[in-house]
Specification:
The chain is 59% helix and 0% strand. It has 142 residues and is mostly helical.
Length: 142
């Protein structure tokens, strides 16, 4: 009896959280939360919680519990399919806005008006192989 009460309270709390999440316009997350929160309720209704203590009886409540478990599974799989479809669009760029890319860093312009002289290429010592990595680390303050 205590297990049923705890599972029902967990399901009610999860559905409440899902409602708040949906109210915040995060429908995909809300659907996934609702799917997870219906699982304990479905397990209680099917008798899986009491299965260790009693035999599984087939009555209307048990079959309704299987229906709730099926609904939770459908909601979960639908939210996963939608999430994967959105991720596929972002990768291919089909209709979605292009991903933001940081511009390459360049030397600041001094604005002297004189054309810059071409510098002679100099041979790099072996320890300057990591100069670009050091520049990135310095840029981020590391």
């Amino acid at each position: 009896m205590l297990a049923e009460t705890i599972c029902s309270a967990a399901a009610a709390a999860g559905l409440g959280i899902a409602a708040i999440t949906a109210w915040r316009r995060k429908f995909l997350t809300a659907t996934r939360i609702a799917a997870y929160s219906l699982v304990p309720l479905g397990l209680v209704m099917t008798g899986a919680i009491d299965w260790l203590f009693e035999a599984l009886t087939f009555n209307l409540t048990v079959w309704a519990g299987f229906g709730v478990l099926g609904l939770a599974w459908v909601l979960f799989m639908t939210s996963r399919a939608i999430e994967r479809r959105r991720a596929g669009r972002e990768v291919t760029g089909g209709g979605a806005a292009p991903a933001a890319v940081a511009p390459a860093a360049s030397a600041p312009s001094l604005g002297t008006g004189k054309p810059a002289r071409a510098a002679k290429p100099q041979a790099k010592p072996a320890d300057e192989d990591f100069s670009d990595i050091e520049a990135i680390l310095k840029k981020h303050g590391i």
